[in-house]
Amino acid sequence: MLAYENQFSTNDSDLFPSDVRQHIMGIVDASPTSQFDCHVTTEIPNVYVYLIEHNPSEKYSLFHVFSCDQIGEDYSYQCFSIDQIHRMHELVLQANIT
Q: Which residue in 1, 15, 22, 52 has the fewest CB atoms around it within 10 Å?
């Protein structure tokens, strides 16, 4: 498993499809006042991109999650508020899943 922290590069075409890169750049470009923290994890052939968006001036934080593989162009995308992430964590703890 490889992890790349804060190293998202528009030139890194080997890790994920161009549609994923375009989607990420669209999020970043649409939020010029936000701060972003990017983590890319590979578990061959799967690639996971975790993009945390924090906007203190507009008082919101979002967790963008992309999942794809290095085989095709398809990918999945989910966006969660930080409150939703905390709630999911609580549910996992309640279910006693480790």
A: 1
